[in-house]
């Protein structure tokens, strides 16, 4: 599933469902997750991100992104394991960075797996996920 248009958030740290990045899953199905998100914005705001799954689902994910507070795109890559639905802040820059989440999901119910995001720190400068970003699932069982 690819983003058809840019989407921006300003002055908000409340996670919101991305307008384009969600895919239907079937209860009991196990899926591999990967994504490529082009994120741009104020490095002071950074990006708050999670992968939201249907109720009763299990699985883990990692943001595959640079740590918070970078301004030039250099630094440590965050590969820490998080539970689905658990959010984490990652760094972005005005020029843009790639955020590459990876994970696994066993769906607890029919529904959708979706990207949710906001600013990690509320600022008046927009944080934007660019068109062409994508989310992909591959059913593994």
Which properties best describe this structure?
141 residues; eight-stranded antiparallel β-sheet; mainly beta; single chain; four-stranded antiparallel β-sheet
Shape: globular
Q: Spell out the helices and strands N to C.
A: EEEEEEEEEEEEEE
Largest sheet: 8 strands, antiparallel
Per DSSP E runs of 2 or more residues, the count of β-strands stands at 14
Give me the number of helical elements.
Answer: 0
Poorly predicted ranges (pLDDT <50, ≥5 residues)? none
Structure classification: mainly beta
Number of domains: 1
Please compute the radius of gyration using only Cα atoms: 14 Å
* Helix percentage range: under 10%
Average pLDDT figure:
96
End-to-end span in angstroms? 20 Å
Give the amount of beta strand, in percent: over 45%
Description:
The protein is mostly beta strands and 141 residues long. It has one domain. Helices cover 0% and strands 49% of the residues. The chain contains no helices and 14 strands. It has strands at 7-9, 16-25, 30-40, 47-52, 58-62, 65-66, 77-78, 82-83, 88-90, 97-99, 102-106, 111-118, 127-129, 134-139. Strands 1, 3, 5, 8, 10, 11, 13 and 14 form an 8-stranded antiparallel β-sheet that branches. The chain has a 4-stranded antiparallel β-sheet with strand order 2-12-4-9, with no helix packed on it. It starts with 6 loop residues before the first strand and ends with a strand. The relative contact order is 0.40. The mean pLDDT is 96.
